[in-house]
Design brief:
- The chain has 175 residues and is mainly alpha-helical.
- The protein folds into 2 domains: 70 residues; 95 residues, no CATH class.
- The chain contains 7 helices and 2 strands; from the N terminus they run ααααβαβαα.
- The chain has a two-stranded parallel ribbon with strand order 1-2.
- α5 crosses α6.
- The longest helix is centred in the first third of the chain and has 58 residues.
- The N and C termini lie far apart (124 Å).
């Protein structure tokens, strides 16, 4: 009987060790399964974000957000020149003077700028004045009258812009 008890005890120990090993394997597999679930959930979250981004792109939200971000940023504005700053100031002046409350107070409908003797200026100054006139003409508040010899104007433009030599008088009159 002793042999039977020894074999039985040995078998029980083997079964116990085997059960312990299987139990440890189950615990390890559960940990691996939990890690896989975490990884799977992470991928699902990323997939949802990507699908949301795709929908935003389809709806134009990406471009809208991009443009709004660029507008609110000063990345571009710090590189703008004097003309751009003057444009902003003229726009603000126009809005101020043409607003209902200020229009009654100041009674200003138009600002007329008269430029005479432009034909007595250097070519570079003529170009600068014409650029300023072009800027002013984009506002309904300003009216610009320029007194100039058209031949001098054509010569100044031709000296400054090399491709300007072949311009006809009709086009010049429209400038």
């Amino acid at each position: 009987m002793k042999i039977y008890e020894d074999i039985k005890s040995k078998k029980i120990d083997e079964l116990y060790n085997e059960k312990k090993e299987v139990s440890n394997n189950v615990i390890n597999l559960k940990k691996q399964l939990e890690q896989i679930e975490v990884t799977k959930n992470s991928f699902i979250d990323k997939q949802v974000i990507i699908q949301h981004d795709i929908q935003d792109i389809k709806n134009g939200k990406f471009f809208k957000d991009f443009i709004l971000n660029r507008i609110s940023s000063n990345d571009y504005s710090k590189h703008l020149g004097l003309i751009s700053l003057i444009r902003d100031d003229f726009k603000e002046l126009e809005e101020f003077l043409l607003s209902d409350t200020n229009n009654e107070k100041y009674n200003i409908d138009r600002i007329v700028l008269y430029i005479d003797d432009l034909d007595r200026c250097s070519d570079d100054l003529v170009i600068n004045v014409l650029e300023a006139v072009h800027l002013l003409l984009s506002f309904k508040l300003f009216v610009v009258v320029v007194g100039v010899d058209s031949r001098w104007l054509k010569g100044s433009l031709a000296n400054h812009f090399k491709n300007f030599k072949d311009i006809d008088d009709i086009t010049l009159n429209n400038i």
